[in-house]
């Protein structure tokens, strides 16, 4: 079987191995998928060892998505836009980088949560690697406007500037603001910050919500709970990042294998056996 892995630090709680095992079984693909803990100063060495052992590709998680972008010989356009890579394919003539997080997020919102993005007011909270990696795909889904807010406003401005051309081309309004200046009454709010928020807490004020706002945290498990509780307590519809995780994995699986797995039964299985 061909070897794949998720490479990160930490990586022990990743649910990607379970997801790819289900995809492989469902599509009769012969592959293994493991967890690879890379030292913080040894990401490239860990990859080279894995490749020398015959690996065909990997997913990359925190904090190595920018390093993976730098190591890829070529990149897909959606990876280049955010400057971050979450999927590598080890082709013989060079490593190819992709970023499937944005497509995963958009598919989860539209397909799994059943919420269209076209014409909507969207708030993206955060401007680190996670946020930068999904902004291009959010724009491509043609909402009316996306506001990127961040504690460090310069980073929000830089992420918006890097996508300004795409926004203009697709007629999607883009703006950057501080957390305190987040706009009120958004249709969809996506938390892409790395804070684990205790209790019912959020980096932004509850005025960003209105009844029924989809409030999605890109994390899953206990780390997402504070934000989800906050959203629910203000009448919004909370959603964790598990659906996005499964959808980005399906995009990566397709990038490696050329086969598109069915995500619905996999997401159901993960929800029933946490
Ligand atoms: P990731 O790859 O997960 O995006 P990152 O690049 O370190 O990681 O980005 C972390 C994000 O979470 C940033 O938007 C960060 O805000 P800053 O750019 O101002 O650092 C945000 N973040 C982290 N801790 C935060 C906190 N306590 N309050 C608000 N935002 C926070």
UniProtKB/TrEMBL annotation:
It catalyses: shikimate + NADP(+) = 3-dehydroshikimate + NADPH + H(+). Shikimate binds at residues 14-16, 61, 86, 101, 220, 248. Residues 241-271 form the SDH C-terminal domain. The keyword Chaperone does not apply. Pathway: Metabolic intermediate biosynthesis; chorismate biosynthesis; chorismate from D-erythrose 4-phosphate and phosphoenolpyruvate: step 4/7. GO terms for molecular function: shikimate 3-dehydrogenase (NADP+) activity. Keywords: Amino-acid biosynthesis, Aromatic amino acid biosynthesis, NADP, Oxidoreductase. NADP(+) binds at residues 77, 126-130, 150-155, 218, 241. Residues 6-88 form the Shikimate dehydrogenase substrate binding N-terminal domain. It comes from the Bacteria. Its EC number is 1.1.1.25. SUPFAM superfamilies: Aminoacid dehydrogenase-like, N-terminal domain, NAD(P)-binding Rossmann-fold domains. The active site is at residue 65. InterPro entries: Aminoacid_DH-like_N_sf, NAD(P)-bd_dom_sf, SDH_C, Shikimate_DH, Shikimate_DH-bd_N, Shikimate_DH_fam, Shikm_DH/Glu-tRNA_Rdtase. Residues 116-196 form the Quinate/shikimate 5-dehydrogenase/glutamyl-tRNA reductase domain. Belongs to the shikimate dehydrogenase family. Homodimer. Involved in the biosynthesis of the chorismate, which leads to the biosynthesis of aromatic amino acids. Catalyzes the reversible NADPH linked reduction of 3-dehydroshikimate (DHSA) to yield shikimate (SA). This is Shikimate dehydrogenase (NADP(+)). It comes from Pelomonas cellulosilytica.
């Amino acid at each position: 079987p061909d070897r794949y892995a998720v490479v990160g630090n930490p990586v022990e709680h990743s649910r990607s191995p379970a997801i790819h095992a289900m995809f492989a079984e469902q599509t009769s693909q012969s592959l293994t998928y493991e967890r690879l803990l890379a030292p913080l100063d040894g990401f490239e060495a860990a990859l080279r060892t894995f490749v020398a052992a015959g690996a065909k590709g990997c997913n990359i998680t925190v904090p190595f998505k920018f390093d993976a972008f730098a190591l890829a010989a070529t990149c897909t356009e959606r990876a280049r836009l955010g400057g971050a890579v979450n999927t590598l394919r080890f082709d013989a003539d060079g490593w190819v980088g992709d970023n499937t997080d944005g497509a995963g997020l958009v598919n989860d919102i539209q397909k799994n949560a059943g919420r269209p993005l076209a014409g909507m007011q969207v708030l993206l909270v955060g401007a680190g690697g996670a946020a930068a990696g999904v902004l291009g795909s959010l724009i491509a889904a043609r909402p009316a406007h996306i506001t990127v807010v961040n504690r460090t406003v310069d980073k929000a401005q830089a992420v918006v500037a890097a996508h300004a051309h795409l926004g203009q081309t697709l007629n999607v309004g883009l703006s950057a603001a501080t957390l305190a200046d987040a706009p009120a009454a958004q249709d969809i709010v996506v938390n892409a910050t790395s804070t684990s928020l205790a209790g019912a807490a959020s980096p932004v004020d509850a005025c960003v919500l209105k009844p029924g706002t989809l409030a999605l945290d890109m994390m899953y498990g206990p780390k997402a709970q504070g934000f989800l509780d906050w959203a629910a307590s203000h009448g919004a519809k909370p959603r964790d990042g598990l659906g996005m995780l499964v959808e980005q994995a399906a995009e990566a699986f397709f990038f490696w294998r050329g086969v598109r797995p069915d995500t619905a039964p996999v997401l159901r299985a993960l929800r029933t056996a946490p």
